[in-house]
Amino acid sequence: MTRTPTVIVFDVNETLSDMAPIASRFIDVGAPGHLATTWFAALLRDGFALTAAGSSMPFAEIGDGALRVALAGLPLDRDLDDAVAHVMDGFRTLDVHPDVAEGVRSLRAAGLRLVTLSNGSASIAEDLLSRVGLRQDFERCLSVEDAGLWKPAAGAYRYAAQACGCDVGEMVLVAVHPWDVDGAARAGMGTALVNRSGGPYPAYFTPPQITVARLSDLSRELGV
Amino acid sequence: MTRTPTVIVFDVNETLSDMAPIASRFIDVGAPGHLATTWFAALLRDGFALTAAGSSMPFAEIGDGALRVALAGLPLDRDLDDAVAHVMDGFRTLDVHPDVAEGVRSLRAAGLRLVTLSNGSASIAEDLLSRVGLRQDFERCLSVEDAGLWKPAAGAYRYAAQACGCDVGEMVLVAVHPWDVDGAARAGMGTALVNRSGGPYPAYFTPPQITVARLSDLSRELGV
Q1: Residue B77: other Cβ atoms inside 10 A
Q2: 0.90 exceeded by the pTM?
């Protein structure tokens, strides 16, 4: 970090929320659990395709449509609309990862402003944080739906800076996704990767300035 | 179609080539075959992320890096570099789908100009078409590597029009990928979807002007 940040910008899906239960919902409806990973990659692929082509659609609509493609032809235990609803409703029941509460509270205790910036809806983030008792630690839950374009387009990060009344250079994006770290870095934000799995970071993306295995290590690494 | 096209622009990976043997290469190295689908979605996701963020990298570099992420932690039967090479080398051995030769020849017989436009390298397309005896039916094999940005960004389709010395409106993109149909349509090209699987088309993408189950049906649908 070239200077101490004033705002920490959290990605939501997978960074704060533990999406593992979504795989169980695939199994519930008669689909293989590993399809959850393929579906989520396809959801982001298609959302980013629209962004690259200069357009944008709500995350939930892309999730729904990509799910119908992923489930096509499988011997489901219920009709397709019910199966899609069962998987999508899973987002409303997720918990945060075990390292999140401590990490969030230590950053707040250091006087940093905390916001979320999701490609999903603000209400999903609001519900998640309220459910786990962390909503009061966050100043705002921002969604790219109000920016008109998804991360990792630079405009999505600039929207967050504008909404917070600060410069992108005063902000640090925290995410588990390399594409998010890369996009934030290109837009001029500081970056921190949470790498819980210890997996490799792709060489084709801008590396993070900070890498932590747990969110609870971030305040120490930031030196705040 | 509002007017008879003069140039047919073929996507390459999965549209012309049958990528099914790539899954066998995952199994060869000790990974589950279904990981091929997840990996290819992640490859495109990351390539499109760079496009959305205003950057670009060669397809083979993204394929290699995304494969290292996909294979991380799996009990492979060889070292990681050899496993990655074995999967990536699979692209050099693919065949075309059974409907391709007849489809290509009927479009050529109608006097249409044929080119390919791939997010992959031109040499992969050149090798594929040479291997199956169809190279002489194509005027050029184009790659987005010469456009500086990937499909589905509008500039990639405009690059193809410029390279062919015609207007995008005189061209029809042929692809199996809804994101490619959507991007071409937004850029002003005609569009034809080859839907061999009969799967659903996502509601969030611009629908194709023409849909065929086999490439060999395309010349009839184009009315040429």
Answers
A1: 12
A2: yes
